[in-house]
Amino acid sequence: MPFSIGPISVARVAVLAPMAGITDHNFRFLCREQRCGMVYTELVNADCLLRGLQRSFRLVETQPGERPVGVQLYGWDPQPLAEAAAWVEEHIDCDLIDLNMGCPVPKVVSRGAGAALMRDPQRVERLVRAVVDAVELPVTAKTRSGWTENEINAVDVALAVEAGGGQCIAVHGRTRAQRHEGPVNWPLLAEIKRAVDIPVIGNGGILEASHAITMREQSGVDAVMVGRGAIGNPWIFKQIDDAWHGREVQLPTVKERLDMLERHLRAAVHTSIAWSRRARDRETALGRAVSGLRGHLLGYVRGAPEEVAFRHQLNSLHHPQTALDAARAAFHLPPASPKEPWPTAQEQAA
Asked: Which residues are marked as active site?
């Protein structure tokens, strides 16, 4: 069931959550192939983007095949946040600006950003208004249920986002204190949906298709946002779409999982090489591609007979073919010849 964020039409009910170290453009593209309705970049520090740090540019890189895509920014000061949003609008092909107001990580909240913003709804409204005034793209926000169980103020924050001109809000139904554990507050999502006129996206605890359907039925949210349930499992979006339309939900075969893992690894290697500017970086590009996908690697072999053994050797995997062979072994399969050669150090330098 499609919904709209300003002029953007989102054709599917499930979207991919922005996740640091996870949702780069390679993974976003794989998710869009599997009927994901919309994707977001990893969260990006607005100040770092304005300072021109290379890693920040890499985080906001997008590709045509993944749209609609939102760029997620974080910060606590309205002016640099607005300036960063304006820079993104001018230089990056994207469809909306999303403001992070839910990140629970200490180094983010200690600066007054992320989930810490929820403790000051007036500042939330000012931040959203500053960005809305700086860009023509739709502006959205991602929040949580509150700071702690004693500070549940997601409705007030949602109203502040709407008052500031935000055109959609995604809410993780857990507090900052809960982080990613414990029950998701579905009744609160329903309360937020009743309180605002902008679309509400529900997030938290969606690890399989049935969770998404139940959340939407019990809360009335316009869409669901999948985070950790998609790591190494881009098929979850197709499964949610099938379940929502009453079709049979099918799990990927072992072959499909291993084929997708290889595709993901090859895309990561290509990106790692493309962003390597120094010879030393190019020589270690394959290893960095593997280390950057460790979370996904675990997801691709989840439930395999030798999953525990694979987990134990994960940090010793430094070449994509070694990682593929280890994943095959987790399913009791022998090593296989690569479909095509992996780049050598000399080829990377060229």
From this structure: 103
CB 286 within 8 A of CB 269: yes
Phi, psi (degrees; rounded to nearest 5) at 263: -55, -45
Yes or no: say if 224 and 14 are a contact pair by the CB < 8 Å rule.
yes
Q: How far apart are CA 189 and CA 137, in angstroms?
A: 26
Express each pLDDT in 240-297 by its tens digit. 999 999 999 999 999 999 999 999 999 999 998 888 765 555 568 888 899 999 999 9
- State phi, psi for 140 to the nearest 5 degrees: -130, 175
Burial of 344 (0-12, 13-18, 19+ CB in 10 A): exposed
For residue 337, the model assigns a pLDDT of: 86
Residue corresponding to tokens 């339309």: 245
Question: pTM score, two decimals?
Answer: 0.93
Domains in the chain (CATH in brackets) are 3-244 (3.20.20.70), 254-349 (no CATH)
> What single-letter amino acid sits at 124?
V
Three-state DSSP at 20 gives: coil
End-to-end CA distance of the chain: 48
How far apart (Å, rounded) are the C-alpha atoms in residues 285 and 32? 26
| Contact call for residues 98 and 141 (beta carbons, < 8 A) | yes
User: Packing angle between helix 236-244 and helix 209-219, nearest 10 degrees?
Assistant: 50
Tens digit of each residue's pLDDT (9 = 90 or more) over 300-309:
999 999 999 9
Helix ranges (H only) for 196-293 are 209-219, 236-244, 254-274, 279-283, 285-292
pLDDT tens, residue by residue, 145-161: 999 999 999 999 999 99
The overall longest dimension of the chain from CA atoms, in Å, is: 60
Question: Is-contact 238 35, C-beta < 8 A?
Answer: yes
